[in-house]
Design a protein that fits this description.
Elements (H helix, E strand, L loop, with lengths): L2 H6 L8 H19 L2 H4 L1 E7 H4 L5 E4 L2 E4 L3 E7 L2 E2 L2 E5 L2 H16 L5 E7 L10 H8 L2 E5 L16 H17 L9 H22 L7 H15 L1 H6 L2 H14 L9 H24 L6 H11 L4 H17 L13 H18 L3 H11 L11 H14 L5
Parallel strand pairs: 4-7
Antiparallel strand pairs: 1-4, 1-8, 2-3, 5-6
Helix pairs in contact: 2-5, 5-14, 7-8, 7-12, 7-15, 8-9, 8-11, 8-12, 9-11, 12-13, 13-15, 15-16, 15-17, 16-17
Length: 399
């Protein structure tokens, strides 16, 4: 993409050149850092995804200062794959990405960057998924070959429901991260994390009803239209879920922390809704029926273990990333992807943080987390929370 093309992009619903100019400068810095590793990556393209890629980026404007609320989501398209596995990235690429992210963090104080990988040769064969669907229809090329068109013309109604499972568990980390008692000095951060969880509820329910969209604005419109009729039990038991989803969409497009008054009250309310949506979604996806948290976790572990060939690569990337962050992890259980163990641990940890002490659950939380990062019998909830965040942020990428 040429400089002129980048200048023409709009990154938020503000449709403001003042906002666009700040985002544009950030993207140029990100692009420059990635290009420093161009040859080592076998780089073909740099793609802007997420909210900014679809022109719905979250930006705070205060006293004429423009500040992104969320990280920049970047996909890099590369040609280097793992030895003997042409459909899997070279594990060394994950270490390079960790270096790039650290350097960008030092240059852009107001936002970080999340980078994932696509293999150029595999683009035409890429499976239908939430991530790939959104890349295909809601992203922008900011450097290199315009390769997004090589992705198939995905039908959102055919996205596997397992993708919604992964989405819900990935956003569970946000609720753990936003725990109010650990964010007394940064209430706005706690609100942001709760909002992300609300979005996951909306997206998962749209997915399972066949109404998924890559646009936040369109999701809000569709959810309001279908919620009472498509999900009568959820609507009856949690009538305020619709109101909270509407607020979360508004916050995403035009961030204002006054939309959600009281971060301490917001968090438990969202967690209650979240567990109910999770239970509903898992039940419908795997025909599980009415079940407790242990049954839900066991179901997810059994269904998302992954193939041995893939697990080897995921563990390789996980360990490389953790070591790059100076966290010396010496664990490798190839029977399951590292992040699936994180899912299991987080389920019990979040439950304990919301509903209080349960000896069985704290032992389960420690046991699963200990499979990917060192945990002791003396680790309490706050210590387990910190180690969970380290594992997620430093090594456990998308499963």
């Amino acid at each position: 993409m040429s400089k002129d093309s980048l200048e023409k992009l709009n990154f938020s619903k503000y449709n403001s050149e003042e906002v666009n100019q700040v985002i544009r400068q950030h993207l140029k810095l990100i692009t420059e850092e990635i290009l420093n590793f161009k040859d080592r990556l076998g780089l073909v393209s740099i793609i802007l995804t997420g909210g900014f890629g679809r022109g719905e980026g979250s930006v705070l404007i205060k006293d004429r200062v423009v500040k992104p609320v969320n990280d920049y989501d970047i996909s890099i398209i590369v040609k280097k794959h793992a030895p003997f596995l042409k459909n899997v990235p070279d594990p060394r690429v994950f270490g390079i990405i960790s270096q790039i992210s650290s350097k960008i963090k030092n240059k852009i104080q107001s936002a970080g960057v999340d980078i994932d990988i696509l293999l150029y040769d595999q683009l035409p064969y890429s499976e239908n998924s939430i991530k790939n669907f959104e890349k295909r229809f809601g992203s922008q090329v900011i450097w290199g070959l315009d390769a997004i068109g090589l992705l198939p013309e995905y039908d959102p109604k055919e996205i596997p429901l397992s993708d919604g499972v992964k989405l819900l568990f990935n956003r569970m980390t946000c609720l753990i991260n936003g725990f109010p008692q650990a964010n007394i000095n940064r209430p706005n951060f706690s609100i942001q994390q709760s909002v992300k969880a609300l979005h996951a509820c909306c997206e998962a329910l749209l997915l399972i009803s066949g109404n998924y969209s890559y646009s936040y604005e369109e999701r809000g419109r569709r959810f309001k239209l279908i919620f009472p009729n498509e999900f009568p039990d959820l609507s009856k038991n949690f009538p305020k879920l619709l109101e909270y989803i509407e607020k979360s969409i508004k916050f995403k497009l035009f961030p204002d922390y006054e939309i959600f008054a009281g971060y301490r009250e917001l968090w438990p309310t969202v967690v209650d809704m979240y567990f109910e949506v999770l239970k509903y979604y898992i039940g419908k996806t795997y025909a599980l029926g009415d079940s407790d948290l242990e049954s839900i976790v066991n179901c997810v572990l059994n269904n998302l273990r992954g193939k041995l060939s893939e697990n080897i690569i995921y563990w390789g990337g996980y360990l490389l990333n953790m070591w790059a962050h100076k966290i010396r992890v010496l664990k490798c259980d190839l029977s399951c992807k590292p992040k699936i163990y994180l899912y299991a641990s987080e389920s019990f940890l979040l439950y304990l943080m919301r509903y209080g002490y349960n000896q069985e659950y704290i032992e389960l939380a420690r046991s699963y987390l200990n499979r990917i990062i060192d945990v002791t019998d003396k680790d309490d909830l706050l210590e387990l929370r910190i180690k969970t965040i380290k594992a997620f942020g430093s090594g456990a990428y998308e499963a």
